[in-house]
Design a protein that fits this description.
670 residues
């Protein structure tokens, strides 16, 4: 286990992975090779006769092979069944490999087809297909290990200076032309090669005999799902000492055309290296031993065709790192500091740094908590965090800090809520489209009709806001007035984006007003329907009657507006002892024949008013005659207890109550 030394300054937004892949360091007897497709380091001792050690995140292998000369390149196929070894400039040898039996030393080979061609390198592509890149073009072959046979599939003739491959997008970039600024990209699919539109890179200041664009200044990556070409450049005609280094980002559109879309301003000069971490472009500067971080999805300055960006935070060094000394005991815990930005560092895409002298492979990682302190613009910080993988917890902590810093963050909250809810809205729209095949209807003019690509954005929904922030106000010292404003502003933003507001947010705003005893504002919110009607909300209002008596009538009005809460209104009236109004209501809405007689009889009995009980009893007797042609209650109505109670009260007769009860039944019917 490696250890990271803790410096006094914690403002490091990059760090090396805690557990590097350790391999045998380069030496006079050991050569080291790296396969950037499988992320494997090969340590070849004495040409392989002593042994070959393969280290990677997923595989640790060792085997021996015959020494048939110096090795130029060595790589496993994606399924780890074939080992390809290049020892000459004209051919590649293959050896079958099995995890059970190991390496089969019976070799078979393939020479490049082009006459007088020199192999610049090779790439394992799909399954057992291999692409040989020569100075005369590219050749695609299928390797059949069972038959120890290699079959030619496709080829393309083109003068090639160098090539770069991206295993994520299967894109190969070939440099051609006498000065090396003409670029031909190929998209490799199983069994085929597809040419993209050829393009030229801008020519800067070049020395005679040197290429205008060198391989070490070019990286292929996938940024926010789009294949991209990242190129380190200096402005034409200006000296490097002036500090004019820039990074150009070329975007590959639908694997057809390539256009320069972004420029990253470095404002310094010297040697640089590029990594890509979580869709961010990291530019390492060796002279200053610092790194810069760029996000092409954040706002920049457009010149009409290209978007110009600056680093989202000041250049910072990678967090200091120490390696545990091999052989040291647990008690000693000896460690040695690593030289960061070492001349022996080699950078590979997307996020790999290798020190062949130390024998370490690291993955460069982000420290989001530190970036929170280093990005002062609140809106920009939220946008940045929304575009990071696994940033939900940090994002919620940032949002929580903003809403508790009121009124200092008052001017940003509305914009932040709108940015959150735009992504939330698009997420809901995508879900509905995937389930039903129809877009969410938009009535608001403020909501963009074109859905953003939210695959790479964190979605903060109402549940997240409620759980992590809004429901925690009782634990904070935030002013009640500010709490009410935040709630109202968040609900406003949801409404502007046509997102239905969940009832628990309305409940929260009502309880907040009640605790503040702001009954006038509560009445206004309900009266002007700022808070949407719902059954749970009406029930909440009923529960607040002791604190605010008018809440009872507000709840009844809300239930009536809903139009589908007849049972609830009836229950409310019965609970208040308003038996006759309840009967009149259910009759007015046409459900008198469906309501339970037992509920009304029980409510009337509980009031200990014989006259009222007699009226209700006779009313349902009349209903029984109309429905069943008998005064008797059906067995399923479970009214026998109330029949006995009626007999007990009136001894089987009306005892002079006829006149009153008849008038009451008439009142119910009217």
């Amino acid at each position: 286990m490696e250890t990271s030394s803790v410096g006094e300054n914690e403002d490091y937004y990059l760090e090396l992975s805690a557990d590097p892949v350790r391999f045998e360091a380069v030496s006079p007897l050991t050569n080291v090779f790296f396969d950037d497709s499988n992320k494997q380091v090969f340590a070849v001792r004495s040409g392989g006769v002593t042994g070959v050690l393969v280290k990677g995140p997923e595989h640790n292998l060792s085997f021996r092979m015959d020494d048939k000369g110096p090795i130029i390149s060595i790589k496993f196929s994606p399924d780890m069944n074939i080992l390809a070894v290049q020892r000459t400039n004209t051919s590649v040898e293959f050896l079958n490999y099995s995890s059970v039996s190991g390496l089969d030393n019976a070799e078979y080979s393939q020479s490049c087809k082009g006459k007088n061609a020199t192999i610049l390198g090779f790439i394992w592509t799909h399954s057992n297909e291999i692409l040989l890149v020569t100075d005369h073009g590219v050749e695609l072959f299928l390797v059949v290990p069972e038959k120890r046979h290699v079959k030619a599939l496709k080829s393309l003739s083109l003068g090639v200076n160098w090539f770069v491959f991206c295993p994520q997008s299967y894109l190969v970039l070939l440099s051609s032309g006498t000065i090396g600024n003409q670029m031909q990209a190929l998209h490799i699919t199983p069994g085929n090669l597809h040419k993209l539109t050829k393009f030229e890179m801008e020519v800067g200041t070049t020395k005679p005999g040197k290429l205008a664009v060198s391989e070490r200044d070019v990286a292929l990556a996938v940024l926010y799902g789009t294949p991209s070409i990242i190129v380190l450049r200096h402005q034409p005609g200006l000296s490097r000492s002036v500090g004019t280094a820039q990074v150009y980002v070329y975007t590959v559109h639908k694997m057809l055309t390539i256009k320069r879309s972004h420029v990253l301003k470095l404002d310094t000069s010297g040697r640089f290296a590029i990594n890509v971490v979580d869709n961010l472009i990291i530019v390492h500067h060796q002279a200053s031993e610092t790194s810069m971080i760029f996000d092409i999805e954040l706002p920049g300055v457009s010149d009409g065709t290209v978007m110009h960006h600056t680093s989202i935070a000041l250049p910072k060094p990678i967090k200091p790192y120490s390696l545990k000394v091999p052989g040291a005991s647990l008690l000693e815990q000896l460690s040695q500091p690593c030289q960061l930005y070492s001349p022996s560092w080699v950078v590979f895409q997307p996020n790999i740094i290798i020190d062949a002298k130390l024998g370490c492979l690291w993955f460069i990682e982000l420290r989001l908590e530190s970036l929170v302190k280093l990005i002062p613009d609140k809106v920009l910080l939220v946008e940045f965090l929304m575009q990071r993988k696994d940033s939900k917890l940090v994002l919620m902590q940032v949002l929580k800090s903003y809403v508790t810093q009121l009124p200092s963050s008052l001017m940003y909250i509305s914009t932040i809520f709108d940015k959150l809810n735009l992504v939330y809205r698009n997420h809901l729209e995508n879900e509905i489209q995937s389930q039903m095949g129809t877009p969410l209807q938009t009535s608001s003019k403020n909501v963009p009709t074109v859905s953003e690509n939210i695959k790479y954005k964190q979605v903060v929904d109402q549940s997240d806001m409620y759980t992590h922030i809004l429901s925690k106000f009782s634990e904070s010292s935030t002013e009640p007035k500010m709490i009410f404003w935040i709630l109202l502003e968040y609900i406003r933003s949801l409404a502007d984006h046509d997102i239905p507001v969940q009832h628990y947010l309305h409940e929260l705003i009502i309880t907040t007003l009640v605790h503040r005893k702001a009954y006038y504002q509560l009445h206004q919110l309900l009266q002007y329907h700022v808070v949407a009607d719902s059954k749970p909300l009406a029930c909440l209002l009923l529960s607040l009657e002791n604190l605010y008596p008018a809440a009872h009538q507000l709840a009844l009005d809300m239930l009536k507006r809903l139009g589908n809460a007849h049972e609830e209104i009836m229950e409310v009236l019965l609970s208040k002892g308003h038996i006759l109004p309840a009967l009149r209501y259910v009759r007015s809405v046409g459900i008198i024949d469906q309501v339970s007689a037992r509920k009304f009889l029980e409510a009337a009995k509980s009031l200990n008013d014989p006259t009222l009980f007699h009226s209700v009893y006779k009313f349902f007797e009349q209903r029984n005659v109309r429905l069943h042609n008998t005064t008797a209650f059906m067995r399923g109505e479970h009214c026998q207890t109330y029949v006995q109670h009626f007999k007990y009260l009136f001894h089987g007769t009306d005892n002079g109550c006829n006149s009153d009860t008849n008038s009451n039944v008439s009142t119910i019917s009217s």
